[in-house]
C-alpha cells in the first residue's frame, strides 16, 4: 500500500478561508473569454491585486512609489485548478513564506467562493525597489519587521505551503 504524496497537495478551500479575503468580487462579464470563464490574463491580475492589498497593513501602501519605494515582481509560478465563470464570487488569500534582505516569497490563492473551491495558485517572488535608483534595496526596518511577523504567523498555519519548487529566495 502506498501513501499519498502530500508534498505538493494544495490546501483546501476550508483551510484557506481562515486567511483574510482580499480583492473580493464577482467575475465580471468583461473578464470572460470565448470559453465562458475568466480569461487567463485576469487570474494573475486579480491575484496580484489581492497581494498588493494584503501588503498595505504591513507598511507597503498602494502609492509607495510616491515615497520612493516600490514592489516589482521577479518570478511567478501559476497553477490553474478550477475554472471561475462569469458571476462566480471570488477572493484572494495570501500566505507569506519568507523574505531575504531585498525580496519576499508569497503564495496567493484565488478562491471560487460560489462553489467553495480553490481555483488558482500564484507563487511569487517580489522585490523591494528604491525608485531613485530603480534597483533592489534592503527592506525598510519597519516593513521588514512587519513582514517577519506575518511570515511567522503564516508558518504556524495548520497546512503545508504548496510551493512549486521552481523558485526560492536568494
What CATH calls the topology is Thiol Ester Dehydrase, Chain A
User: What assembly state would you assign to the polypeptide chains in this entry?
Assistant: single chain
Mean pLDDT: 94
Q: Low-confidence stretches at least 5 residues in length (pLDDT < 50)?
A: 1-6
Cα gyration radius (Å): 16 Å
Supply the helix-strand structural class.
alpha+beta
Identify the CATH class.
Alpha Beta
Total domains: 1
Beta fraction? 25-35%
- Portion of residues within helices: 10-25%
Q: How many angstroms separate the termini?
A: 39 Å
Characteristic terms for this protein:
170 residues; alpha+beta; Thiol Ester Dehydrase, Chain A; disordered N terminus; HotDog_dom_sf; Acyl-CoA thioesterase FadM
Give an overview of the whole structure.
It is a single chain. This protein is of the alpha+beta class and 170 residues long. It has one domain: Roll (Thiol Ester Dehydrase, Chain A). The protein is 21% helix and 32% strand. The chain has 3 helices and 6 strands. Strands 1, 2, 3, 4, 5 and 6 form a 6-stranded antiparallel beta sheet that branches. A hairpin with a 4-residue loop joins strand 5 and strand 6. It is globular and about 45 Å long. The termini are far apart. This is Acyl-CoA thioesterase FadM. InterPro entries: HotDog_dom_sf. Pfam families: 4HBT_2.
Amino acid at each position: 500500500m502506498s501513501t499519498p504524496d502530500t508534498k505538493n497537495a494544495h490546501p483546501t478551500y476550508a483551510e484557506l478561508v481562515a486567511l483574510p479575503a482580499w480583492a473580493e468580487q464577482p467575475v465580471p462579464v468583461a473578464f470572460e473569454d470565448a470559453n465562458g470563464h475568466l480569461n487567463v490574463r485576469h487570474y494573475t491580475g486579480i491575484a496580484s491585486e489581492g497581494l498588493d492589498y494584503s501588503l498595505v497593513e504591513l507598511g507597503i501602501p498602494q502609492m509607495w512609489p510616491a515615497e520612493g519605494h516600490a514592489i516589482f515582481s521577479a518570478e511567478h509560478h501559476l497553477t490553474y485548478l478550477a475554472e471561475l465563470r462569469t458571476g462566480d464570487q471570488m477572493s484572494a488569500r495570501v500566505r507569506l513564506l519568507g523574505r531575504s534582505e531585498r525580496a519576499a516569497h508569497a503564495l496567493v490563492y484565488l478562491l471560487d467562493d460560489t462553489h467553495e473551491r480553490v481555483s488558482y495558485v500564484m507563487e511569487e517572488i517580489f522585490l523591494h525597489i528604491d525608485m531613485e535608483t530603480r534597483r533592489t534595496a534592503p527592506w525598510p526596518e519597519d516593513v521588514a519587521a512587519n513582514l517577519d511577523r506575518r511570515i511567522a504567523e503564516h508558518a504556524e498555519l495548520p497546512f503545508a505551503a504548496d510551493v512549486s519548487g521552481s523558485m526560492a529566495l536568494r
